[in-house]
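Customer escalation, tier 2.

The customer says the design service returned an amino acid string that "doesn't look like it belongs to this structure." They asked us to rerun it and document both sides in this ticket. The original structure tokens are below, unchanged.
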């Protein structure tokens, strides 16, 4: 196998579809062996990765087992991509949010005005808040920790790429989603400093709106308004985000550490 990642081994979380599946394909195209980690084992297998592993990133034990299995299968690990993420959870106020948005839009269409306030946080339960942070933030930490443990034991350099979001800076989105993605950036920057002496680089990618399955739960009129606000006039394709990940994983980014690579079509500046 040839390519700028030839001989390297990677793990990708949330690899069954969307950005994760695109990252799997891109890293393999660049020559890496890839373990696809996903809560849905069948979707992990469908990604076409070298190795497919069922993994719940919100469960530290599941993460430890999956990282160990990947290390044993490949004999080494070089790259970790923390892509697993969710935008909503049970009892997080999403149903009330979308219902009030629909009422407001209907009144605007019929009357030209509306008194309906579209909010979510007042409806958000503890479990709903915790459910999103468990995947987006805790899961990212668990993978970073296990990956760093393996590389420290092996005395081997490597790189971690965490998927954040433009929402971390713009505040567009739900409270738990924005908070978790902002926290991922803070975690990235701290780990970049701490792990640098071990020759482990840690960076983040902050995509803007991307055409992934997570967008399927968003009303069409909201999608249209998001696209209209992007200077390039469209959402990103997952392959475009995967290309930024591949760059950060490669030696072309050998001096890039603690950075946030923004890929959002100029929809928001960090």
């Amino acid at each position: 196998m040839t390519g700028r990642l030839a001989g390297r081994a990677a793990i990708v979380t949330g690899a069954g579809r969307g950005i994760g599946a695109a990252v799997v394909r891109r890293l393999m195209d660049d020559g890496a062996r890839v373990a696809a980690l996903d809560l849905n084992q069948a979707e992990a297998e469908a990604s076409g990765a070298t190795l497919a592993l069922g993994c719940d990133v919100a469960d530290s034990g599941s993460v430890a087992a999956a990282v160990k299995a990947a290390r044993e299968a490949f004999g080494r690990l070089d790259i970790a991509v923390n892509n697993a993420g969710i935008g909503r959870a049970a009892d997080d106020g999403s149903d009330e949010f979308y219902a009030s948005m629909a009422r407001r839009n209907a009144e605007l269409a019929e009357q030209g005005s509306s008194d309906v306030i579209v909010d979510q946080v007042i409806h958000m339960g503890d479990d709903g808040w915790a459910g999103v942070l468990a995947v987006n933030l805790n899961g990212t930490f668990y993978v970073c920790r296990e990956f760093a443990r393996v590389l420290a034991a092996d005395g081997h350099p490597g790189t971690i790429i965490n998927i954040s979001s433009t929402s971390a800076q713009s505040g567009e989105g739900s409270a738990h989603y924005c908070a978790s993605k902002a926290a991922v950036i803070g975690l990235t920057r701290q780990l970049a400093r701490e792990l640098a002496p071990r020759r482990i680089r840690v960076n983040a990618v902050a995509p803007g709106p991307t055409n992934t399955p997570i967008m399927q739960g968003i009303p069409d009129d909201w999608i249209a308004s998001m696209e209209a606000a992007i200077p390039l006039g469209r959402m990103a394709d997952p392959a475009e985000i995967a290309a930024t990940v591949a760059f950060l994983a490669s030696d072309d980014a050998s001096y890039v550490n603690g950075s946030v690579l923004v890929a959002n079509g100029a929809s928001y500046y960090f």
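Tier 2 assessment: The sequence is consistent with the input. The chain is about 45% helix and 15% strand. Residues 126-154 form the longest helix (29 residues). Sent an explanation to the customer and offered a walkthrough call.
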